[in-house]
Design goal:
transmembrane, 21 strands, DUF4175 domain-containing protein, 5 domains, alpha+beta, membrane, seven-stranded mixed sheet, disordered N terminus, 757 residues, transmembrane helix, Immunoglobulin-like
């Protein structure tokens, strides 16, 4: 049959297609897994270039990525045509799980497997013609992950660097000359200093980058790391760095003929280099210490008084903090003082003001609004406050303490209260204020109380008002209830009412029977008014002009008339308030209570007694006997005065100056004289560290002189002048001599003699 004739060729094509599909799937599977690995490798390379110090971490990430990809490629080790046939059977049901028959020998198959092989061959050929990829591989996740890693690498590469490139050490000019300390005749080495480079790395708190100074003498912040790089001309001994009083041998820097040394400097110092009989000049390093922050408060004032009324109880704090390198923290410390005397209590509060210090500015405004009630203050309390700031080096500073006082409502409004006033008013003048407070509280709670409770509390307040009225009535001589009841109280049945304007035309009522005499300890009846007066009444009448009638309101003399008038008004207001309180009208009693309190405060101020200060008044001098006599005995204070010679300052400097003056005068120097200049050189070096521009040339000249004198050479005149000027500047300024007093003329001397006689 034709089918049987063409079967071997079709089977061979199908078998070749199966092998091709297996190889294609393996390649695409490997590409899908290796593509993210390549993107991750690119990201790691960019990170290594931007972050060289993190290479151990990046190496670990690279190894982990390789391990993950190797684990994902593990299935390819067992991939072959049979595995591809099984995958095709799972993907295409039309193959009837018989794709593996394509790999079998058609001559060895029975009839039914052979027929199935032909059917599978036909279906596989149709699928290969219609499907571009018999075994597709998903590249979506691979592409997405690779794109993310590639974007990450691009972002890291384009991200601006957070720090600048470290600058290289800068070459500086250094003058070299023979070392004066080298023994005469000592061999000189072949090596010479060709170049000196300096690199200064400021500490981290300054936030400054490393720099190369422009000259051999330079300034730097405290804590800076200074690196010296010295290149020599040939092999030999290492250069030596003389830093202050220390000598440091430079070590090899990893390059031929280059030596290096590093030091962290905290104080100003001098340095020079030694190599093979050569020494450089002295150069100064000025170390600038970190200054503590400064705080300046613009408001409030050092003492602020908040009025009890008419002013909002708040204070606005405005300040400015400065630092030479940067501020890191600011804090407001508040101390609240409540109470008075031994009952005073203190409470400390802290408020952070570091909101604007995130970037560590060198100058920052500080502000806060202090609401006294929110801080727990009441009238009469005090608030102490101060600011403290910290820079990025950890140094702290604080401002002065400022005082804010909230005036007490009971304090006198006049500034004279702090003077010599003496309060003679009794302490219970404030009881009227308490009655007002209780009345206000009763009115606020009226809706919550029953009618009986409200009436009881109002009547109790009326009783308190009555007790207070009677207490003040004693100052007016009213020892009985009648004192105010007869004048301000309502009429009773036993006492007719006073006539009014409306009763002018009506007939007058009949006179009431005379009242019984009041049973009182003091009998103030008029003498001779009744015929049956007793001897005791006559005796009282005789004593009447000489006794204090404190129970008579009209003649009591405890207070002045003006004060008594105000106290009468106080009692009237208290009586009106008492009347309304007892009739359950506390709201109507409030105006009378407030008027009574105001009048009481006026009486309190009016009855103060003031004593004028009296100073020392010396006795008058008898001018008739002492004037123009010239007698000075006892007129001046005794004091002893002596002139002592001042101790000699800078003796070593003075010795060197004398030697310099002698040499300039023509005295030949001797090699032993070099020892006279060494102490002066040490004193000059100590001040040259602080003021190198003024004293460093003199120090160089003095050392040149010492080297010349030690070698037996003549002293250079220019060096003599420079050294003498620098040493003279070290001496203290001479004390100006007192000008001689001119001798008095003959007329003045004659006049003084006449006065003495």
């Amino acid at each position: 049959m034709p089918t049987t004739a063409t079967h071997p060729a079709a089977l061979a094509d199908a078998r070749a297609g199966l092998h091709a599909a297996s190889r294609s799937y393996a390649r695409r599977y490997a590409v899908a897994r290796l593509l993210p690995l390549l993107a991750a490798g690119g990201l790691l390379v960019v990170l290594a270039l931007r972050w060289p110090a993190g290479w151990p971490l990046l190496l670990g990430l690279a190894l982990a990525s390789l391990a993950v990809v190797g684990w994902q490629l593990q299935p390819l080790r067992h991939w072959h045509a049979g595995a591809a046939a099984a995958a095709l059977d799972r993907r295409y049901p039309i193959l009837q799980d018989s794709t593996g028959l394509l790999l079998a020998d058609e001559t060895a198959l029975p009839l039914l497997p052979g027929l199935q092989q032909q059917r599978v061959t036909r279906h596989f050929t149709e699928l290969a013609a219609t499907e571009p990829q018999l075994l597709p591989v998903a590249f979506k996740n691979s592409y997405l992950l690779s794109a993310l890693l590639g974007l990450g690498a691009l972002g890291v590469g384009l991200w601006p660097s957070g720090h600048r490139a470290a600058p290289a050490a800068a070459p500086v000019a250094v003058r070299l000359h023979p070392d004066p300390a080298r023994p005469a005749g000592a061999p000189v080495g072949p090596a010479r200093i060709e170049q000196v480079q300096l690199l200064v790395t400021p500490p981290a708190y300054t936030r400054r980058v490393a720099f190369g100074p422009a000259g051999a003498s330079f300034s730097c912040p405290a804590g800076s790391r200074v690196r010296w790089l010295v290149r020599v001309s040939g092999a030999g001994a290492a250069p030596v760095l003389e830093l202050g009083r220390r000598r440091l041998a430079l070590g090899a820097a990893g390059q031929a003929r280059i030596y290096a040394a590093e030091q962290v400097l905290s104080t100003s110092t001098l340095y020079r280099l030694h190599l093979a009989g050569q020494v450089s000049d002295d150069y100064a390093i000025e170390v600038q210490p970190d200054q503590a922050p400064t705080i300046r408060i613009q408001s409030p004032k050092p003492y602020t008084l908040i009025a009890a009324r008419g002013t909002r109880p708040e204070v606005t704090l405005q300040a400015t903090a400065r630092d030479d390198y940067g501020l890191s923290q600011a804090e407001l410390v508040l101390t609240v003082a409540t109470g008075q005397g031994e009952a005073v209590k203190f409470r400390e509060l802290r408020r952070e003001l570091s909101a604007g210090l995130g970037r560590q500015p060198t100058q920052a405004p500080l502000g806060s609004l202090l609401r006294l009630p929110a801080l727990g203050l009441h009238p009469g309390d005090e608030l102490y406050l101060y600011l403290q700031a910290r820079d990025n080096h950890g140094q702290r500073a604080r401002s002065d303490t400022y005082l804010v006082q909230w005036q007490d409502t009971a304090a006198a409004a006049s500034a004279l209260d702090l003077g010599m006033g003496v309060n003679t008013a009794p302490a219970y003048f404030r009881s009227e204020r308490q009655i007002i407070i209780d009345t206000e509280k009763l009115l606020a709670e009226q809706k919550k109380l029953t009618a009986a409770e409200f009436a009881n509390r109002s009547n109790a307040l009326g009783f308190d008002q009555q007790a207070l009225r009677l207490r003040y009535g004693k100052f007016l001589g009213e020892e009985a209830e009648k004192g105010m009841g007869a004048t301000a109280g309502p009429p009773t049945a036993d006492e007719p009412a006073l006539p009014t304007a409306e009763d002018a035309t009506s007939p007058a009522p009949p006179a009431a029977a005379p009242a019984e005499p009041d049973d009182h300890d003091h009998d103030h009846a008029a003498v001779g008014t009744r015929p049956n007066d007793s001897p005791t009444a006559a005796t009282d009448a005789l004593m009447e002009p000489y006794i204090h009638k404190h129970d008579d309101a009209e003649t009591a003399d405890f207070l002045e008339p003006a004060v008594k008038a105000k106290l009468h008004a106080v009692l009237d207001e208290m009586w009106a308030a008492e009347l309304r309180l007892r009739t359950n009208q506390p709201a109507a009693a409030r105006p009378y209570e407030y008027r009574a309190l105001r009048l009481l405060k006026e009486v309190q101020q009016q009855t103060r007694a003031y004593v004028r200060k009296a100073g020392f008044t010396p006795t008058p001098l008898p001018e008739a006997t002492l004037r123009l006599t010239g007698e000075l005995k006892g007129a001046a204070a005794l004091h002893e005065q002596a002139t002592l010679p001042a101790p000699a300052a800078q003796p070593a400097v003075r010795v060197a100056l004398r030697w310099l003056a002698a040499v300039r005068a023509g005295q030949p120097p001797r090699p032993a004289d070099a020892r006279l200049l060494e102490p002066a050189g040490a004193a000059l070096a100590a001040v040259a560290v602080q003021q190198p521009a003024l004293y460093l040339p003199a120090l160089k000249a003095l050392r040149t002189l010492g080297a010349a004198v030690r070698a037996g050479q003549p002293a250079p005149p220019a060096q003599l002048v420079a050294a003498e000027q620098g040493l003279s500047a070290l001496l203290p300024a001479p004390v100006p001599a007192a000008a001689p007093t001119p001798a008095p003329n003959r007329l003045a001397r004659r006049y003084f003699q006449e006065l003495s006689e």
